[in-house]
Amino acid sequence: MIASEAVLSPPLPTLLVVPTGIGCALGGYAGDALPAARLLAAASGCLITHPNVMNGAALYWRDPRIHYVEGAALDRFAAGTLALRPVRSQRLGVLFDDGIEQPLLQRHLQVVDACRATLGLTIGPVLGTAGPLQVRLERGPSGASWGGLGRPDLLLQGAERLRAAGATAIAVVARFPDDADAEALVAYRGGSGVDALAGAEAVISHLLTDQLGLPCAHAPALAGLPLNPALDPRAAAEELGHTFLPCVLVGLSRAPDLVPLCNGRPAWADPGLVLPEQIGAVVAPAGALGGAAVLACAERGVPLIAVENPCVLQVDGAALGLEVLPARSYSEAAGLVLALREGICPSSLRRPLPPLNTEG
Q: What's this model's pTM, rounded to 2 decimal places?
């Protein structure tokens, strides 16, 4: 006799959050959290995560179980004000910073054409901003990266033009400052620093998503760096080509639509929606639990899996008074997600297992 195949329980929508710009040992580099995301997607059957996890510059991974959702939209989804509608494809509008030099701009335009010709993505229109966006990079007291724009109005004007022209998702490429000799960059390439660009990237994508209500993501435009034989493997994906745009275009090409909710419900019935009430677990670094998505899930009683993943922050469950399921690695976190999906109490997997006493 042939044993029947085991059948998994229905998918357990799970959030994977790895905050950007805080130097996480896993997820603080060029898409180096992708293996963890793939494992968690297999364990959960439905993973919702953000570009910082999925973007590996010239490298990317498409998985129908993984939903690519910009960080501000992820926060709103967790808070219960937004639902996700999976789509077959998005029409990608691309917005280029007017501050990008012509040779570097041409490299990015070639990426756009390559994604059309080789991957079959629907891309267009492609526009430039009415002037340089003037990106600036900063660093907070904790060591986390931050930044801003001198002309956010030009960013929004350009994105509005793309939406008016029919774009359903928007990729932005802004010219970032070059400083190949900066101490932070040397440390980052060596595997011990914080991504100095990530904070400013988040500012750009958050602003666009909040204002337009469309899937958005950002890729920085930078001059090439000199060869570094001692490059850390986690930073290597960023040095394979001339741009970081390929992963953004691929991620956005099937990013879910963002559907506003009123009193927790959509304006019309849609059985294909992924709803906030379906979230079954959230996975985040143990020292970075203070983000909006994590706190919103914790407030609603969603199981919180806190993974040992060192970063520059120390905002853990004890500091916030949160009950967490500790995990020593993302492999262990995937096991906990699978247990939750199968209805197995996580505490039953740990030893010692104390007896229950009668209360009264």
A: 0.94
